[in-house]
Design a protein that fits this description.
Elements (H helix, E strand, L loop, with lengths): L8 E2 L13 E3 L4 E5 L13 E3 L4 E5 L13 E3 L4 E3 L16 E3 L24 E3 L6 E3 L3 H5 L5 E3 L4 E4 L13 E3 L4 E4 L5 H4 L5 E3 L4 E5 L2 H4 L6 E3 L4 E4 L13 E3 L4 E4 L3 H4 L6 E3 L4 E4 L14 E3 L4 E5 L12 E3 L4 E4 L13 E3 L4 E4 L14 E3 L4 E4 L13 E3 L4 E4 L13 E3 L4 E4 L13 E3 L4 E4 L32 H17 L5 E6 L2 E6 L8 E3 L4 E5 L12 E3 L4 E4 L13 E3 L4 E4 L13 E3 L4 E5 L20 E3 L7 H5 L6 H9 L4 H25 L1 H28 L1
Parallel strand pairs: 1-3, 2-4, 3-5, 4-6, 5-7, 6-8, 8-9, 9-11, 10-12, 11-13, 12-14, 13-15, 14-16, 15-17, 16-18, 17-19, 18-20, 19-21, 20-22, 21-23, 22-24, 23-25, 24-26, 25-27, 26-28, 27-29, 28-30, 29-31, 30-32, 31-33, 32-34, 33-35, 34-36, 35-39, 36-40, 39-41, 40-42, 41-43, 42-44, 43-45, ...
Antiparallel strand pairs: 37-38
């Protein structure tokens, strides 16, 4: 019976106990609740396959309710909750002896810190998964001792500590061990190849393993997939490391490896994926001579100290899909050989010292090239015919170089382009309208160039709803095991192993949002949308059509010469988290409709010519400080100190007087004050002179007396005449 994936809720119906002949039951991916020990499942003793994964069951760690289920060989209970059962003491070996036991993501509570005690009494396990359970203490290596036919052990993402102990006797059936992302330390035992002679998959990443690579690794001839990343391994990489072996996937990322990379590693006839990134390898890799082609699919040697010219021997990697040489010290030009790998999909040469012009990757010999990262180099020249006719291109990052001239109109040929990053170059001229034909484009950064002219109004129809365009994403940490026989189980698990290794690479781009530079990678990019046109010379009005970008998360138009009002249509940008319009010549009021932007967390209109009240204290606008509005002398209201009431309370003056004062070249108030001061100073000066000089004082009094006498007689004569 298969009831999986139906969103069924509640406890299991009691009538289920009547199906006593049931052999197969799958009720995974529902919303069932309750304690399994009191459910009707305990009556179905003929079950051979039981999957209750991805529900809300409580599963007692003793499993005593399944003690009589001797036929149950596959028990899957991922994504439920293990609960401790304190009153149970195991006294005998239970009849319940599953071959497949999966208890991952069971969110062990604080009381349950160790694996279930039942595991001590199981002796027929083939597959056990205890990953993502927060278990602590020593690694339960006794599982290998008790289960001599054990094949697969997965205990990743726990908190196991101590060293890596091996069983005392060889186990010929173990082919996969995954104990990655724990806290296990020390060196890997030298006799691991003797204890597990047929080990095919070994994942030990994210622990504290250290030391140098020794003969234990070279002697593991059956190993096909090895992940030792994010440990503390040191020393050099032995040149016989991959020679004459069956190794398909090798990941040694994020260790302390030094020296030169042996050329034999690149010429391996077996390797499909090679990750040597984030180490301290140095020297040149350009001189590698191939006697026959290599079949590497993935080559990642980024984040090292490699130097010299870029290798031209990549043309010998006939099946190359990903090539990542970023964050090194390579110089010189980009060889056109990189464009002619028929299966190449990702090319990352960013963060180097490359110079010269872009290669002409317009040949049909690179039809699958979809991800190009060339940022932070010293590339120059034009975009003319570069990458022309590569319709599969999804991400193009040419930021922070010295590329010049105008953005070509043929950019519309990139019909699948989702991310376009041209920031920090020397592009000038107008933004071509043809860029609006990129209907898949959701992240565009043209900032820090010399672009001029108006913002094309058609950009308002550019960004659509988020979609999962990313083709290089990490697979889910869990997978549904759907098999009925051990053969199907092994085939499914091997497929999972190789899929997991092949999808380690994630898209990674650097964006400026909310005034900070962030590096985004992985699946989150499929949900982001952004337009950044800042730090250019754009003029004119902000198009009203920009309000149609209903799914955009970040919009930056700052540091331009834009004029006119802020469009009220911006209130339609319901997903907007960051809006920067600062350092422009915008005028008018801040539209009150912007308070409808409930997702807005970063906002700036600083250094413009805006006026009127700020919609402060309403929704998200109550979280923005004065820095968001500085440089606008006519704005008022909180969070600014200038009150809008003070502005409106100025005394009214008759219009005629205002007009006279506005038309006069002299301020009357200033004139009266200065005249009075001059008059007082003149009187005091005359008084001081007369007080000091007696002759002048006598002469002035005599003159004053003569003037008064003459005036008296003049007036008297005139009065008597009438």
């Amino acid at each position: 019976m298969d009831l999986s994936g139906n969103e069924l809720v509640g406890i299991l119906p009691s009538c289920l106990a009547n199906l006593t002949s049931l052999r197969f039951l799958d009720i995974s991916q529902n919303l069932f609740t309750g304690n399994v020990a009191s459910s009707p499942l305990i009556n179905l003793i003929l079950l051979r396959y039981l999957s209750i994964s991805t529900n809300k069951f409580q599963v007692p760690d003793s499993f005593k309710s399944f003690a009589n289920h001797s036929n149950l060989k596959v028990f899957l209970s991922d994504f439920n909750q293990l609960v401790p059962e304190h009153d149970h003491v195991q006294t005998r070996v239970p009849k319940f002896q599953p071959r497949v036991l999966s208890l991952s993501n069971c969110r062990a509570n604080e009381e349950l810190t160790k694996p279930p005690s039942l595991l001590h009494y199981l002796y027929d396990l083939r597959y056990v998964d205890l990953s993502f359970d927060q278990f602590m203490g020593a690694l339960p290596y006794w599982l290998f001792e008790n289960n001599t036919r054990l094949q697969v052990v997965v205990m990743k993402n726990n908190s196991f500590t101590g060293s890596f102990h091996l069983p005392s006797r060889p186990n010929l059936d173990v082919w996969k061990i995954d104990i990655s992302n724990n806290q296990i330390q020390g060196e890997i035992p030298l006799n691991i190849s003797m204890i597990f002679p047929y080990l095919t998959v070994l994942f030990l990443s994210g622990n504290g393993f250290g030391g140098r690579f020794s003969k234990w690794l070279v002697s593991m001839n059956s190993l096909e997939s090895l992940d030792l990343s994010s440990n503390q391994f040191s020393g050099t990489l032995p040149k016989e490391f991959v020679m004459g072996r069956s190794l398909l996937h090798l990941r040694l990322s994020n260790n302390n490896l030094i020296g030169k990379i042996p050329p034999s590693v690149f010429k391996s006839q077996s390797l499909d994926a090679l990750y040597l990134d984030r180490n301290n390898f140095e020297g040149e890799i350009s001189n590698v001579h191939f006697s026959r082609p290599s079949y590497l699919n993935i080559l990642d040697i980024s984040n090292n100290n490699l130097s010299g010219k870029l290798p031209r021997w990549t043309k010998n990697l006939l099946d190359l899909i990903e090539l990542d040489l970023s964050n090194n010290h390579f110089d010189g030009s980009i060889p056109e050989e990189f464009c002619y790998n028929a299966h190449l999909q990702l090319l990352d040469l960013s963060h180097n010292n490359l110079s010269g012009s872009l290669p002409h990757c317009s040949s049909p010999s690179s039809p699958y090239l979809s991800h190009i990262y060339l940022s932070k180099n010293r590339l120059n020249g034009l975009l003319t015919h570069s990458f022309l006719n590569i319709s599969s291109l999804e991400i193009l990052d040419l930021g922070e170089n010295s590329l010049s001239r105008s953005i070509p109109k043929w950019i519309s040929n990139f019909s699948s382009l989702s991310i376009l990053l041209l920031k920090g170059n020397l592009f000038f001229g107008e933004i071509p309208n043809e860029i609006c034909e990129l209907d898949q484009l959701r992240i565009m950064d043209l900032s820090h160039n010399q672009l001029s002219g108006h913002i094309p109004s058609c950009l308002g129809h550019l960004i659509g709803a988020p979609n999962s365009f990313i083709s290089w994403s990490v697979i889910s940490e869990s997978s549904t095991l759907d098999f009925h026989t051990s053969t199907e189980m092994e085939a499914r698990l091997m497929e999972e192993v190789y899929t997991q290794l092949d999808n380690y690479t994630q898209d990674r781009i650097e964006l400026v949002t909310k005034w900070w530079s962030y590096t985004y990678e992985g699946n989150i990019l499929s949900y982001m949308s952004e337009i950044d046109l800042s730090c250019n010379q754009l003029t004119g009005l902000i198009p009203l059509e920009m309000g149609n970008l209903s799914d955009i998360h970040s919009l930056n138009l700052s540091h331009n010469n834009l004029t006119g009002p802020i469009p009220a249509t911006f209130s339609n940008l319901k997903q907007l988290e960051s809006l920067d319009l600062s350092f422009n010549d915008l005028n008018g009021e801040i539209p009150s409709q912007l308070i409808e932007l409930n997702s807005l967390v970063a906002f700036s209109v600083a250094h413009s010519n805006l006026l009127g009240p700020i919609p402060y204290g309403k929704a998200q606008f109550g979280t923005f400080d004065s820095n968001s509005y500085e440089g606008n002398s006519l704005l008022c209201g909180p969070p600014l100190e200038k009150s809008c009431k003070e502005t409106n309370a100025q005394p009214k003056v008759p219009n005629s007087l205002n007009e006279k004062r506005e038309g006069s070249l002299i301020d009357m108030d200033v004139f009266c004050i200065s005249f009075l001061a001059t008059y007082v100073v003149a009187l005091l000066s005359i008084g001081a002179i007369l007080y000091i000089n007696p002759y002048w004082r006598w002469a002035s009094f005599y003159l004053f007396e003569r003037c008064v006498t003459n005036c008296y007689y003049l007036i008297l004569d005139n009065i008597l005449r009438f």
